[in-house]
Amino acid sequence: MCGIIGYTGSGSCAEKLLRGLDRLEYRGYDSSGISWLDEKGKIKTVKSSGRLSLLREKLGEALPKSSCGIGHTRWATHGAPSDENAHPHCTDNVSVVHNGIIENYFSLKEELIGKGYTFDSETDTEVALKLIDMYYKKEKDPLSALTSAMSRLKGSFALGVIFRGREGELYAVRVGSPLVVAFGDDGNYIASDIHAFLDKTDKYFRLEEGEIACVCPRGVRVTDRDGRERSKEILTAEFSLSAAEKGGYPHFMLKEIHEEPRIISDTARSMAELPIDKIIPWDILDGIIKEEGNIRIVACGTAMHAGLIGKYYLEKFARVSVEVSYASEFRYSDPIMHQGDVLILISQSGETADTLAALRMAKERGVFTLAVVNAVGSAIWREADRSLLTLAGPEIAVASTKAYSAQLVLMYTLAAKIARAAGRLSEEAETAICRGLSDTVPKAVEGIAARDREIKRLAEILSEQDNAFFIGRGIDRYLVTEGSLKLKEISYIHSEAYPAGELKHGTISLITEGTPVVAVITDKNVADKTISNIKEVTARGGEMIIISSDDIDIPPELSKTVFRIPSIGIKGNCEKDYSGIFIPFSAATALQLLAYHTSVLRGCDVDRPRNLAKSVTVE
Ligand code: G6P
Fold first, then answer.
1. When comparing pLDDT for 197 and 408, which is higher?
2. Ligand 1, pocket-test mutation among 252, 346, 400, most atoms within 8 A of CB
3. Cβ-proximal residues to 262 (8 Å cutoff; 6+ apart), any chain
4. Helix (H, G, I), strand (E, B), or coil: what is residue 328?
């Protein structure tokens, strides 16, 4: 959701800004630009719509020599992707890059027009810029201009700012949207996230709500809204640079899918010994088990789909009912929540605006919040009552894959631990689930990733099409919801997922000769029912791609395009049949690879699909 970078130091800023933007492009990539202070202290700016390569072209070979500047890569909110709307936005005195949304931009714009300001872009950012400019002209001091402007701006925003004649000074403002400050050998940085400068330094701190940093080559001063100085603890980033590189794979997405076995195992091991009361306090858990309190899972996109799998296993193992909601709906639905409930927030980035808002809402009502996040120190990680970490490491491809698999591990573990606490799962079964997650599942997923070629053949069927449908029942229904999202995200094929039994209630009217339908059948209990639904599709000319567990009989006439997944689960002395419970991991990986190959075959930009952004810090 827009990437911000800034540098001030003894080196030259342009290449550092461009390299940082390259790493931040996953946040948005429809235009980019940089501003710097020239040798006379004047602001210079170059910006371009389109990918970063076009900005590089515009800048040419001779990059500016300046040692202080800011840069931006945009995900358009106010105004189309164009040169005019690209950041930085500048006056003679100030240059601003912005991530977030200024909600009261319209009334401020009218006020500024009344004071003689004119506007060249459709952005809310230009309003913030001119407001800062107005205060700067009045107060002649960057910090007080920023403080005054901040008190007038509503919404969520992170700003990077430079001022004419203030050589070596870089300002960063955080209200809602994330910003970090980092310390390098030859200068200091600001950025939307730490990946932007990991090749230069791993020492950083996060700005908190309402803080302003004045970053200079030799030091950083942080103040709050009232001008009080704040001391910051410097952290060491735990990610290595290799996470931000493709490591021989053609795309980050493929690399990240291949990392899943290790990530599943690491995440499972990190959870195995964690007692349930370190996750949810006993008194609250007791209420949940007695059905006095409820569990709700709230998230967005792929994380929400992981929540659906969580619901399935919490209900199956622990027999507690769980509601799953999109965060964007939940926050405005006047949800019924009481003390004694548990709200589980799932988020890869830990910064998603709607998920964060849902968390804050629950906390205000005294509801216990449990976060499942992939970024230590992110807002959701810090603000939740308890936080669990998915050990997926940085995920660079916009389409989430390895983070989803890690989220599934946490969902299974949580379900097993709550079930055990409720006395609804034996110790033996709980141990077997935890062991299966760390040993059996990673091997199975590795096996699927190694069958890349087979999946590519299935992708050839899909890649020629404009529409596709996904069907499944029970747990498979939740898997296809994610499989369908993956496909449309990166291949631009219109795709919809349905409970298999629901297709005939309307959507089957869209099935004609050759319409591709992907069916997932891993749940033995409903396999025959899904097969009947598949027959309804083929009777109307639909072309099936079936992903099924190898212990399910598929009629020979349907087995032309079947991808068989070894059944994996828990064998032995369990109270129920848990023989196939781990297949969703293998099926999820197969669906991810199906989307991946379809995207590659269609010549799409796999890692940076159009219109999307990885971290969505606006609502
Ligand atoms: C964006 C991303 C998705 C992600 C969703 C939620 O839409 O493109 O991949 O699932 O945000 O993000 P979060 O960081 O909260 O998991």
1. 408
2. 400
3. 442
4. helix
CA dihedral 27, 33, 35, 39 (to 10 degrees): 130
Cα(403) to ligand 1 centroid in Å equals: 10
Centroid of ligand 1 to alpha carbon of 470 (angstroms): 21
Q: What average pLDDT does the structure give for the chain?
A: 93
CATH of 451-611, one of 3.40.50.300, 3.40.50.150, 3.40.50.10490, 3.90.230.10: 3.40.50.10490
> For the chain, where do the domains classified as CATH 3.40.50.10490 start and end?
249-449, 451-611
246 is known as an active-site residue: no
Q: What residue's CA is closest to ligand 1, atom 7?
A: 301
Q: What is the pLDDT of residues 396-441, one digit of tens each?
A: 899 999 999 999 999 999 999 999 999 999 999 999 999 999 999 9
**From ligand 1's centre to the CA of 371, what distance in Å?**
15
- 71 phi, psi to nearest 5 deg: -145, 165
Residue nearest to atom 15 of ligand 1 (CA): 347
Instruction: State residue 493 phi and psi, 5-degree precision.
Output: -80, 130
- Find, among 368, 347, 351, 382, the residue nearest to 292 by Cα: 368
Q: Ligand 1 center to residue 365 CA distance, Å? A: 26
Fold of 249-449: Rossmann fold (3.40.50)
Identify the active-site residue in 2, 216, 300, 434: 2
| Tens of pLDDT, residues 52-63 | 999 999 998 878
Q: Whose CA is nearest to atom 5 of ligand 1?
A: 301
How far, in Å, from the CA of 7 to the mean position of ligand 1?
A: 28
| pLDDT-derived band at 366, boundaries 50, 70, 90 | very high
Compute the distance from residue 614 Cα to the ligand 1 centre, in Å. 6
Mutate to test the pocket of ligand 1, among 25, 300, 329 (most ligand atoms within 8 A of CB): 300
Convert the pLDDT of each residue in 64-98 to its tens digit: 889 999 999 988 888 888 889 999 999 999 999 99
- pLDDT for residue 387: 97
Question: Of the candidates 529, 604, 597, which has an alpha carbon nearest to the alpha carbon of residue 563?
Answer: 597
CATH number 3.40.190.10 is the correct assignment for the domain at 3-244:
no
CA distance 46 to 34: 6
Report which protein residue has its CA nearest ligand 1's atom 2.
614
Query: Would you place residue 292 in the very low, low, confident or very high pLDDT band (cuts 50, 70, 90)?
Result: very high
At residue 445, does pLDDT exceed 90? Answer: yes
Does residue 610 carry a pLDDT above 90? no
- Where does CATH 3.60.20.10 sit in the chain? 3-244
- Looking from the CA of residue 304, the nearest atom of ligand 1 is 10
CB-count burial class (<10 Å; 0-12, 13-18, 19+) for 426: middle
Q: Is 614 a catalytic residue?
A: yes
Residues with CB under 6 A from ligand 1: 300-303, 347-349, 352, 355, 398, 400, 612, 614-616
In ligand 1, the atom with minimum distance to the C-alpha of 403 is: 16
- Helix residue spans in 506-561 (DSSP H): 527-538
To the question of pTM greater than 0.85 for the whole model, the response is no
> How far apart are the C-alpha atoms of 177 and 305, rounded to whole Å?
24
